[in-house]
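User: I'm putting together a teaching handout on how sequence relates to shape, and I'd like one worked example. Could you take Peptidoglycan-binding protein from Micromonospora trifolii, show the sequence you're using, and then write out its predicted structure as tokens right after it?

Assistant: Happy to. First the sequence, then the structure tokens directly below it.
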Amino acid sequence: MNTIFRKSMLSVAGLAFAGGVFAGPIAAHAATPVVDAKPVAAAVQSAAPKPQGDQSHITLTDEQTGNVKAIIAATKKAGLPERAAVISIATSLQESKLENLGHLGDANDHDSLGLFQQRPTSGWGTPEQITNPEYSTTAFLKGLKQVDGWQDMPLTQAAQTVQVSAYPDAYAQWEQQATDLVGQHWNS
């Protein structure tokens, strides 16, 4: 996908999200009954939304764990918070199961490569660049930073806005595992 089309898609998604932000809370609260509730103490890791839908999980190899650590390192280097690493890892889990994929011949999706299945012909970089975990993560994060409100939107919406996948809801299934992996490796 060319850069102009990608930016157009990001703009349209941002406008749709902004419309939902302004209209959604008003409409949602109008039908919400008042409940007499007592405060409950709970451990809260962050203000990030809860994972959506059924969650998937895979057992990671050492190579995949190394890719998790590379994604976290690139996220820290970019000065972004843990939520960005969660979105990045969930995206990579969906796109490549955290495997740095080269060309897969007939099984290849166009010219998609690397952890995020980025395409050289769509402007993500050269094949050598997008099969470099630090580079591909940084490229993904650059796209994520262009999404207004990515920190507060559902993971699958943030990932889809960057990736423009044929399966826009597929990222959600990896949110819990990505959250757990970031919790496990962020400070290691």
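A couple of points you could highlight for students: Residues 3-30 form the longest helix (28 residues). The chain has one domain: 3-185.
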